[in-house]
Every structure is written in structure tokens, then in C-alpha cells.
Write a structure and sequence with these properties.
The structure is a homodimer of 435-residue chains. Chain A has 435 residues and is an alpha+beta fold. Chain A is 37% helix and 22% strand. The first copy, chain A, folds into 2 domains: 327 residues, 2-Layer Sandwich (BirA Bifunctional Protein, domain 2), CATH 3.30.930; 89 residues, Anticodon-binding domain (Rossmann fold, 3-Layer(aba) Sandwich), CATH 3.40.50. In chain A, strands 1-5-6-12-11-10-7-9-8 form a 9-stranded mixed β-sheet. A 5-stranded mixed β-sheet of chain A has the order 15-14-16-17-18, with helices on both faces. In chain A, strands 2-4 form a two-stranded antiparallel ribbon. The interface between A and B is large, with 80 and 80 residues. Chains A, B: GO terms for molecular function: ATP binding; histidine-tRNA ligase activity.
Amino acid sequence: MPISGFPEWMPPQRMIEQRVLDRIRTTFELYGFSPLETRSVEPLDTLLSKGETSKEVYLLRRLQADENTKDDDALGLHFDLTVPFARFVMENAGKLQFPFRRYQIQKVWRGERPQEGRYREFLQADIDVVNRGELPFHYDCEMPLVIGDALGGLPVPRVRIQVNNRKICEGFYRGLGLTDTAQVLRTVDKLDKIGPARVAEALIETAGATRAQADACLELAAISADDGSFVDTVRKLGVTDPLLDEGLAELLQVVETAREHAPGLVTAELKIARGLDYYTGTVYETLLEGYERFGSISSGGRYDNLADTGKERFPGVGYSIGVSRMLGVLFGQNALHVSRSVPTCVLVALPSDEQRPASDRIAAALRKRGIPTEVAPTAAKFGKQIQYADRRGIPYVWFPGEPDTVKDIRSGEQVEADAAEWQPPAGDLHPVIAG
Amino acid sequence: MPISGFPEWMPPQRMIEQRVLDRIRTTFELYGFSPLETRSVEPLDTLLSKGETSKEVYLLRRLQADENTKDDDALGLHFDLTVPFARFVMENAGKLQFPFRRYQIQKVWRGERPQEGRYREFLQADIDVVNRGELPFHYDCEMPLVIGDALGGLPVPRVRIQVNNRKICEGFYRGLGLTDTAQVLRTVDKLDKIGPARVAEALIETAGATRAQADACLELAAISADDGSFVDTVRKLGVTDPLLDEGLAELLQVVETAREHAPGLVTAELKIARGLDYYTGTVYETLLEGYERFGSISSGGRYDNLADTGKERFPGVGYSIGVSRMLGVLFGQNALHVSRSVPTCVLVALPSDEQRPASDRIAAALRKRGIPTEVAPTAAKFGKQIQYADRRGIPYVWFPGEPDTVKDIRSGEQVEADAAEWQPPAGDLHPVIAG
């Protein structure tokens, strides 16, 4: 029986997922990120160390554990890849080279009530750069380029990255005279959910804002631009604050770097807040064009205190692709397809049971040259063997003979062929993923 | 802090692991196995449905679960990939094409006491072929070829696959007059651990064997051959039984198929029993040459009742590579190396902060042609930038200029280069794994 929140793809969907993961991984490595995989479990106190209570943890218990003995107690499955990464960095700081660039593609688990597009087990693909002491800002500019490159090479809808900087919000709120900037940020973060009128009311009620201050916050949140013009738009609101200036300069650098390397990828979107997360500067969200209503499928930001040993500080910037979430949305809309349900390109037919060694030799010769090949399961009538291929979408059936022939079962075309030389068209060698 | 039984590789080891997994996956697909990933959890009754009690299950509990409500109860992490696969096949039989060939590469968890080379979290790579009704025997012959091909293409020691067939053992024991063949099998399975003298004693004490019967069992277990000669050797022991004949014919077919396609890969080893598992015919174990003392790193067999819906039977044959176990052994013996600790092939130097856009453009041009590239973190002195590359094993440093030059920091050789055309030697493009 399916278990709510624990998705399971059929093999064709898994083929698509693997192709997506291959592209993501290859891109991350092109940018020099090293692979890392951490264990799936962390001590409960590590999982809760960021004061995070919104993500429900699954604890482990051994079935045959003695109730009276202390049993691995307080081990839980990780709910993201950032907390384990921070723990790994502190634990291994002496062995790592900083700045440390790593990617990590793993399952995570959250025991939340499953709802539309939310899973309890899902796959994330993260990149982070972390340094000792200080981390140069240019890494904040690099992140969206890596993500745009990874997802841009896939048959998924175009991605749009929305960027903001918490320093802009906090500086602006402070410059306005609001003191509980965290509460303002959390409230403004609800804009898409509850609309501007209710956000304004909430700001007045819970963050001590006047009507004018609330309106100014909403004006700031409404600013959006795909070039540096947002700086002037903010300035025209007449608020000044040194942190605001710093945030504007940083965001401008992100937007301008993206405009040069990946025009159309990045928008400055001043309503983005990522309310509950521990970001301290740049924040990113990612929308799929035409699927904006499903929300961000990938997000991240700068955290000046990813890890802190007391003696040393490890600031970082990172980005996480919600692979299961993105694919769940696209599969749900039937927006991704694969050309066949098996990797197999050629089925070698079996004229009789006695001839299996000969068919096996043909298959071995084809595989040796990288052509995925199966041999027919039984020496059934050729019509039935062709049906075996057809049902799986295998494009070619190979008939041993004097000479051998190979048939494209889609067109019916059949030609003489030599297993040591024949090559399928490049587009037929592996299953093709299309939008 | 490290948690006993939950291994974590450093990035260079993870690079090796990924290369191993890529080879395994590519090989499985060459043979037409489709990818599958099942959820990590199963209901407890599914996990225990094979009557398996030797593998300790981790149960999940939500941290904030209300003690009084029924909470996802009895969900546990899977301890192998066979039980989830059997469940998946029964659940989706109507949507799958049979015979169904799938591979599955995933973590599994066992809450056992960790000991030398045993993990609580580890990675397995499985292939299985399953059919409705009957499964032709030739699939038993194919399995070792796939595994030999997958592991043979890696810089790991040569693998030797040891094959036996339970029908030989059971038929022989029955032909000898022993009735509790399961108990005999379990006892003989301890041969490598406790030696022949104590096995003989145990057979007499627990399986009702006479001294002569016990000796005959030991004689059978001592038979080993890398060709079909084992058939005569067994016959000379003078025991006859129809099941024995069937087993001998099957094992002969496995050995002869392997001799043709992969000479030296497979040995008939009549002591192999895989005691506690639910196999019904062929059984496989796998040793690494020079690492035999660490035991089998990969095993499998034929199970005539992988799944059974009551109405239908789904026999299968499968093989599981213990990836973590194999790599744990080889890492522990320092037997695998990688040429650098990052994927990066080129570090683009940064003459000054103002020139970052130019260095970024060079990096983008190199990446576009598949060359993993980073830009130096700061405009430090070139000596320090070269040190950044050197510490990570990055072989090339690129100096922007008029013209650009690229330096192989191992040889010191520096040449003019154009980012739109320069190509590193193929052996430098990606990290190289070596034994």
C-alpha cells in the first residue's frame, strides 16, 4: 500500500529523475563543488541546535531495544542537508581546505502532515560554500548562476530566480523607525498568502507599526526589477540606513553579475524574506515559468553563522534544489516524458533455445560498444518477441542469421548488420527525456 | 561526533564511491535493467513478513507525536532492498511488464551491534529479474556475468564469484538419508567459522547424522572447481537423488556460461549455503582477490517465491553488491586512491578584484566545454593562489593576460592558451581513481 508522503516513482519516472540528478551533479562539479554524503541520522540535539521546531523530526528506535537500557537514544533522521553539513564542517574543520565548496544530494525526512506537494521523504540537491572567518561576497553572486546552469540544461520549464537581501529589509524597517524587524519580516513574508491589506493590519497589530510605516513596508515589498533600477526605486521611498545601503549594494552585485552571465535568470524581488530560516543577507527563491502557483522549488541564502565552534566562525552561502518537489509538480502536470520504459536499445531475438549462446554473444558484442541490450526471455514466435520489445519501447530487434539483420520496429525497416560495427542513431542509444 | 556504524566518507572517498556507483549503474543499464527506487520505510509487518528476525529493524517515531494517538505506527527503515522490491512488485504487478528487470541502488539500515566491517547504515546495489509464474533458468546464468562486468571495470581487486545450488545440497543430504536438510545446511554454512571437525560434531548432535553421513556432507562441501568437473566429483560420492541431479545440471549451466563469457570469474564452490536466506536454488557469493579474509562483498541467489499474492507466484533471481562493505574494506586497507580532492581541473587566477568579471568569463568559457573550473577566492598574491590549487590537487592555474597563459603546476610548464580552445589531456579532465 502507498504510504502518504512517501512517494515512489515508476521506472520511467525514476529514469527522468536520474537524468535530472546527473545534470545537477555534473553542473555542480563543473563549478568545482566536491561531493559529500553525510549519514542519514544525527543526534537529536544536533537536529534541534538551530532552534528549529517547524520541521518535525523522525526519531529512530531499535525494534528489539531493551526498554530499560539506553539505546542509541535520541538519533533522528535529518530534515535538511544544512544542519548535517554544519556539523560535518565543525567536526572535520582540521582536515578540510577552506573555502570549502561541497554539494550533497540526499534524501531528507520530515514527519509533517503530508499535503499537496509536501513529502515526508524527499530528495534535495544542495550546494554550499563555507569559509573560516569571512566569506567574500562574490560567492553570493555565483550561487544563482550554478542553479540556473544546472536546471537550464534540463527539459523543465525555464527557471526564474528571485533574489532579495535581508539587510535591505532590516535596514529599511530600522530606518523607518520600526524596532522589531524580525516580526516585520515574518509578517511581510505572508504577503502571497494573505494579501497586502491583512499584512498591513498585522504589522500595525503585532509589530507596532503606524499606518504610514505599514504602507512603506508594503511599498518596499512591491519592488521588483530585473536590472539595477530597484536601487533608485528604493531610494525614492526616502528611508536611509547604513544596513539598507549595504544590502542594496550587495543585491545590485548579484543582479548585475547574473545579467552578464545569464540574462533573464535573476530578478530582484524585494518581498522575498524566507521568514523562518536563519539567513543573514542574500536570499534566493526559484520559480518554474508557468508553474509559479506551486511556489519555490529551490531556495537558499547567506548565513553568517552556519557553524560556530566558539573560537571560530564559519559563514556560508548555499542553495538547495527540491528535486522531489520539482519533479512531483511536473509529474503531476504530466509535463515530463521519457521515450521508453527501459534502458534497453536492442532486443536480440532467440530463434531457438539451442541458439541462446549465439544470441548471448551478439548481446555481449553490442554491450561492449556501449549499446544497452537484452536477449529475448524465451524462444517464442518472433511476433511475440517483437511484442516484448514493443511493450517496453525498445526500438530495435536483432535477428541472428546469415547475415544478422536488425529491425527498427517503429518504422519496420530491417537491414543487414554486424554486431561488431552497427551503431544506432545517437538519439536512440539512451531513453530521451522531453518536456 | 562520529556515530558507531554510520560511516561518513571524506570528499575524496565519496568521489571514489560515486565513480564505483556510476560504473555499476551503467553496467546494469547496459544489460537492460530499469532503475527503481523504493521509499526508505515499510510497514513493520512487511519488514517481518519473511519471518526474518536476524536483521534488527529501526522503527520511526515522530518527535512531536501525541503519545495517545495512533502515529504512523509501525513504520520501519528497510534492512535490504529485496523485501521492498517484493512489496513493490505485488503492489504494481498490473502496471509492470514481466519478466521485470530492475536495479536499485539505495541505503539500507540495520540496528545491529556494529562490528568490524558491519555498518548500521550502508549502500547496496541490487539487480533482480522477476517473472509471473515461472522464471527461465538462464537468468541464473546471467547474474554473475552482470556483476563481473560491473566490478571488473573498476580499479578494485579481481572478483571471484563462488556459486552453488541449494538443490545439490538438499538432494545430496536427502539421498544420504538425512531428513532435516535445513538444519544440515545451516550447520555446514558454519564451515569457514568453526572448521570441519566441529561441523561434523554439530551435524551428529543437531541434525541426526551418523559419522559417515557427516563425513559425506563435509566431502561434498569440500568440492570446488572452475569447470564442469565438479559433476563427476559429486557423482563419485555415490549419492543419488533427483533433486541432486537437477541441481548439478543447473550449476553446470551457470559454470559453463561463465566459462564462455568471462573465463576465470566463476567457481563452483559446494560449501556455499547462505544459511539464513530464503533461496531455493542457485546461490552466489563474491570474494575480492587478496581480500578473501573479509568475506563476501556481494551475494545473491534464486528465490522461487520472492512474492506470492495467493493467486500468483513471482519467482526471481537477484544479486546484491554491498557497496559500503566493499569500499569500507578497501578504504580500510588504503587500497583505493583518487588523483585530487576536488573535481576542479583549472583554477582561474585573479590579478585584482576589479578583474573578477574577466576571470569569471574565462571560467564560463572553460565550463561550457566541460572543463571543471573555479575562480580564485581572492586577489591574493599569485603564490597564494597557486597554493590554493596545489592543496586541492587542481592541476592547472590559468593566468588572464595578453595573451592568457595556463600553467601545469605539477611540471611548472606554462603555455599561451585561449579559453575557447584549450583542452587538458584527457587524464587530467576528471579526477582519476586508481587501485
